[in-house]
Amino acid sequence: MKCSRCDVEVPRQRINMGYTICTDCSTEEKVSCHTIYPHKTGGYIQVVSKEQSNNLNRLDRRGTSIKSAPKYKPFTIDTLDEPKPFRNKKCTKTYTTYDTALKQTLDYYDEWGYKPTLKYLRQLNSSGDIPLLTRVKIQDIITDMYLEPSPRALQRHFNK
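Request: output the structure for the sequence above.
Response:
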């Protein structure tokens, strides 16, 4: 069968659906869809016009659209003709020696106790006086001393 407007052959599937006009002469708009999620899985599709689909996608945060793509800046890679010069800078930071820091911390522990000593160690490390590795080693020693029972505590325990 031929189109009633332009005499082009109309496909049989279109005739079976009840159309007598070809797609070029048709004034009907293409249909679109909107995905609906009643819960987090199991969405279904609602067939709507293109205008309604755009509006629903604008309103629905889960709507499928390309609304976020234009916000990105174009990605370009700049090629460098010459690499940046490497500056070999030596570390000029001077730390307190391990033995000195250990002696200071043990003296502090004898005077103030466990928790203030840990704060003191943290302060020494954050101020840059001792490196982190030294702090961890000294903190392990202080914690072992704190957890190890004293001879007097052992006497009281076994003399009961």
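The first helix runs from residue 12 to 16.
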